[in-house]
Structure formats: structure tokens, C-alpha cells
UniProtKB/TrEMBL annotation, chains A, B:
<dbReference type="GO" id="GO:0003723">
    <property type="term" value="F:RNA binding"/>
</dbReference>
<comment type="similarity">
    <text>Belongs to the tRNA pseudouridine synthase TruA family.</text>
</comment>
<comment type="function">
    <text>Formation of pseudouridine at positions 38, 39 and 40 in the anticodon stem and loop of transfer RNAs.</text>
</comment>
<dbReference type="Pfam" id="PF01416">
    <property type="entry name" value="PseudoU_synth_1"/>
</dbReference>
<keyword id="KW-0413">Isomerase</keyword>
<protein>
    <recommendedName>
        <fullName>tRNA pseudouridine synthase A</fullName>
        <ecNumber>5.4.99.12</ecNumber>
    </recommendedName>
</protein>
<dbReference type="GO" id="GO:0031119">
    <property type="term" value="P:tRNA pseudouridine synthesis"/>
</dbReference>
<dbReference type="InterPro" id="IPR020103">
    <property type="entry name" value="PsdUridine_synth_cat_dom_sf"/>
</dbReference>
<feature type="domain" description="Pseudouridine synthase I TruA alpha/beta">
    <location>
        <begin position="152"/>
        <end position="254"/>
    </location>
</feature>
<dbReference type="InterPro" id="IPR020097">
    <property type="entry name" value="PsdUridine_synth_TruA_a/b_dom"/>
</dbReference>
<dbReference type="InterPro" id="IPR001406">
    <property type="entry name" value="PsdUridine_synth_TruA"/>
</dbReference>
<feature type="active site" description="Nucleophile">
    <location>
        <position position="61"/>
    </location>
</feature>
<dbReference type="InterPro" id="IPR020095">
    <property type="entry name" value="PsdUridine_synth_TruA_C"/>
</dbReference>
<feature type="binding site">
    <location>
        <position position="119"/>
    </location>
    <ligand>
        <name>substrate</name>
    </ligand>
</feature>
<dbReference type="GO" id="GO:0160147">
    <property type="term" value="F:tRNA pseudouridine(38-40) synthase activity"/>
</dbReference>
<feature type="domain" description="Pseudouridine synthase I TruA alpha/beta">
    <location>
        <begin position="15"/>
        <end position="112"/>
    </location>
</feature>
<dbReference type="InterPro" id="IPR020094">
    <property type="entry name" value="TruA/RsuA/RluB/E/F_N"/>
</dbReference>
Length: 260, 260
């Protein structure tokens, strides 16, 4: 495609970031460079010597991390694709990293072409919170029941109306989503919930994990999961887990083999 | 002991800290509360309702972390020893944590009674630095030779004059120190040097690790280790490794069984 007399290219960029020091992924008037998108666009403009607008696969909230966020953007620059990540990393702050850039079809869109995503939520049990995990894992000062939490995960798998597992504040047409896989992983006192699906409602993973932890410590009964799925009543579930335990691991751009 | 009409107690406190946001352990005029010691003393004064001066097992530089730093201090407060850590953690920022408090003999001194220390230095190899390790592990953009580095470790073990492995700026009487154990540990691309000894000169671990990495990438020959030990010439070794990879793991307060 020709853009202002120059060839237009579409670049798919995979990035990682530590979300601690940002107001989330999405650009915001007034605090633009304190968002991932704003900071990225600023550095891209310097590398490509033209204004760049990126489209992300989706937003992440302030404090949420990403190991495999994907954005796409158009450019007329002729910079070789294999040099983009390196050039960008020279400009980016150390808490945002470009992993790889690929030239893709002009109609590729990081959000609309995503088939699904994988998130991992990390938390740990103990007496004293660790200064070393405070930014990346949620401290839970209770003993948790692994079996109960694992059983609750099983109930969430599949296609459901997840309205009870969402915060208001986004405009979505339907609350039906499919969870392909949800696993509780144990590594000593450090546990993770790994969850992949075709799409996630606003705060969905954090509400799921908050409910799982409440079930694990005995504050909620496992029956609340089925009841919440049936009644779509958000009040049946506890508080959402805090953002810093959450990490966007991967965005899928090819169909997922899934059997219910 | 009676102090101003009150019983004096000596408390041994084990703490952890993420050193990222501090100018190091030692209190400094003008930036007192931006040091670990200053911040700790401020919070101790609030908990004990009296001024408290702590003595650390030793300093750590700005950016260096600790999983097992030990301090001791006197107090006339009658607060039960088992409540000290919890009370303190309510006051401390989240990057400093009190692990445990013990009441010890009045002549115990965190520095003078230490028999030795254990440090771990973390680094990782790769193409792109990770935003998640940037505060806790040193990024090395080279492939390193494990066998060569391990062989170099063996040469460092034992009692030597480590003057070549120290920065100027501290007043020590002798440069002789004993390294009890030094191990290179491999976990995928994440490697660690674990090193225990009866005492460490200023920057000694960081200079050792800097030299090991230079040997691993082929910039220094392994012979420089023996030469540096013999000649005490600091210039034979490369740059010291940066502070953020370093962590004080443990301070030993009982004799170490060591055979050369």
C-alpha cells in the first residue's frame, strides 16, 4: 500500500513490560508517557522518525505485567524488520522490552485477529511478605486448600456467561467467553493460576483468582462458582485479586484446538 | 543491665530488603531515610518509643539486596520479643521486612560476632534483557563458558590475600580472607555464584564475579586469577559486576567447619 507517496508496512511487535510504574497499557491524555502505549509510541516515533500509533491486543491495567503483549502499527520507514527490536530497545526504558518485530499483512490487527490469550496469576503463602516478590506476586497470609481450589478451576473451564466475573466499565456485547484451560500450579509456597481463553472480560482473571483464593482459605464455598455462573451475580464472589500478580503471557493468532 | 533506671535488652533482628531504592545499608547524613539503616532506625524508634541505633553485620552498597542481613540494638522497651517483627513490619516500607527478632546476650554484636557470610550473585545470558529481572539479576549479552568459570572458582577457594579483589575506600588491617565455598550454579540461562567466607573486602564479591564473567566470555584468561592472588594487582581483573545482582544471603554466628 502507498501512504503519502511511500510504501506502507504493517509491523507486529511482541513486547514485555513490568507494569509497576505505569497507569496501564492504554494511552491517557495528561499521563501519556506514564502508560505503556504512550511510552512505546514516543520511542517508536524517534526510531521511525514519523508519528506512530500502535494498536494493542488489548489493555492491561496499571501494575499488570506482560511477557507476551502484541501490538501492531503502520510505518513508511524502510528500516529492516530484524533491526526494529534492537533499535527500539535502545530508546525504551528498562521496564519495557521489544522482543521481536515481524512484517505482517496490511490487514493484520493485533486486537481483532487475536484468537485468544493466556494469563498467569502468581501468588504466595507465608508468614511474612517478601520484598523480592512484592511487585510480581500477591502475598496471601493464609494456608490455602489446593484440592478445593483445583476443583473450583474445573468448574470454570468451558463456555459460560462470565458476567459475574467482570467489573463494570467496559462496553461488551456478550458476556459469554470460553476458558480453554485453567490450571493451578504449585511450586512450594509459590502458586500460579494459568488460564487461557478466547477472550477475557474486564478484570475477569483477577476476579476469578480472588474467588479461588477465598475458596482456598475457606471464606467462600466452592458452590459460589456455579451459582455465580448461573445467576451472573457479581456479589457472590469476593474481592478481585490485586493487579501486580497478573501477567499477560501470550496472545494467540492462530485457532486453538479446543474440545469441551 | 539497667539503663537509665530501666532494664536494657539486646535484640538481634534478621531482615530482608530490596536495595533498589536505597543508597545502601549505612546511614548517611542528609539522606538518612534513603538508607536501610536510617529507615530501620526511624521505624524502630516509632515501635519502641525511644531512639534506637542499630549495628549491622556489615554494609551493603546501594542497589545490593539482602535475604538475611542481621542487625542488633539495645532497647529498654518491654515489648515481647515475638511481637517485634510484626510491629515493625506495620511501619516498614514494603521493600524492607523484619523476618525475626531474638533476645540475645548483652554483649552480642551483629558485626563483631559474625563468623562469616554467604552472598549469592545472580546473572543471566540472553539476547534481550528481561524487564522482570532488571532489579535482581545482571544481564550478560554473551554466551559464557561454564567449565572455565567453574575452574576459576576452584582457584579462589581457600585462604588468600584478596587485595586485588577489593576496591580502595575501606580501612582494613589485612587483605587475607578465607573463601569456604564458591559454587557456580546453572539454571537454564540463569546462573548464580554462591560464595561463603569468613569475611569479604570492599566490593570483593562483585570484583570476583566481574572477573568470572570476563573469563566466561573469553575476555580474560583464567591465569589472571592466580596472578591477581599472587601480585595483588587490581588491574589484572576486569570491571566489577553491578550491584543489583548481589544478595547477602546469610550471616553466620557459629563457627564454620572448614577444611582447606
Amino acid at each position: 500500500m502507498v501512504l503519502g507517496g511511500k510504501m506502507k508496512r504493517n509491523i507486529k511487535l511482541t513486547i514485555q513490560y513490568d507494569g509497576t510504574n505505569y497507569y496501564g497499557f492504554q494511552r491517557q491524555a495528561g499521563r501519556n508517557i506514564d502508560t505503556i502505549q504512550g511510552k512505546l509510541e514516543l520511542c517508536l516515533a524517534k526510531v521511525f522518525k514519523e508519528p506512530i500509533k500502535v494498536r494493542g491486543s488489548g489493555r492491561t491495567d496499571g501494575g499488570v505485567h506482560a511477557e507476551g503483549q502484541v501490538v501492531s502499527f503502520f510505518t513508511t520507514s524502510v528500516i529492516p524488520v530484524e533491526k526494529i527490536a534492537l533499535a527500539l530497545n535502545h530508546r525504551l526504558p528498562r521496564d519495557i522490552i521489544a522482543l521481536k518485530a515481524e512484517e505482517v499483512d496490511l490487514n493484520f490487527h493485533a486486537q481483532y485477529h487475536a484468537f485468544g490469550k493466556k494469563y498467569v496469576y502468581s501468588f504466595y503463602q507465608g508468614v511474612t511478605p517478601s520484598p523480592f516478590y512484592r511487585l510480581y506476586s500477591y502475598f496471601v497470609p493464609y494456608q490455602l486448600d489446593f484440592e478445593k481450589m483445583e476443583a473450583a478451576c474445573t468448574l470454570l473451564k468451558g463456555t459460560h456467561n462470565f458476567k459475574a466475573f467482570s467489573s463494570s466499565g467496559s462496553n461488551v456485547k456478550t458476556f459469554e467467553r470460553t476458558i480453554y484451560d485453567i490450571d493451578l500450579i504449585k511450586n512450594g509456597n509459590h502458586w500460579q493460576v494459568s488460564i487461557s481463553g478466547n477472550g477475557f472480560l474486564y478484570n475477569m482473571v483477577r476476579i476469578i483468582v480472588g474467588a479461588l483464593i477465598d475458596i482456598g482459605r475457606g471464606r467462600l464455598d466452592i458452590s459460589c462458582i456455579e451459582e455465580a455462573l448461573e445467576t451472573t451475580n457479581r456479589n457472590l464472589l469476593g474481592k478481585k485479586a490485586p493487579p501486580h500478580g497478573l501477567c499477560l503471557k501470550e496472545v494467540y493468532y492462530s485457532p486453538i484446538n479446543y474440545e469441551e
